[in-house]
Amino acid sequence: VNGKTGNLGNVVQIVRQKNKISVTSEKQFSKRYLKYLTKKYLKKNNLRDWLRVVASDKESYELRYFQISQDDEESDADE
Known about the structure:
It is built from 2 helices and 4 strands; from the N terminus they run E-E-H-E-E-H. The protein is an alpha+beta fold. The strands form 2 sheets. Strands 1-2 form a two-stranded antiparallel ribbon. Strands 3-4 form a two-stranded antiparallel ribbon. The longest helix has 14 residues, at 31-44. Belongs to the eukaryotic ribosomal protein eL22 family. It comes from Cirrhinus mrigala. Keywords: Ribonucleoprotein, Ribosomal protein.
């Protein structure tokens, strides 16, 4: 905000409702920048290998686990 990093101030509000987090901004805040910040947070906390950021619709993102199929692992073990 105002050209300073790490300064959300009163312009950006983050609200948690059970398993949903809502980010509301009074100033222009791009969806792509929110995705960038989310990925940066996941990498910093070593969660990037387990979770990914997926656009669920035009106005929101979801965090989903990577799909690890057990069939592929079993076929590799057989060979």
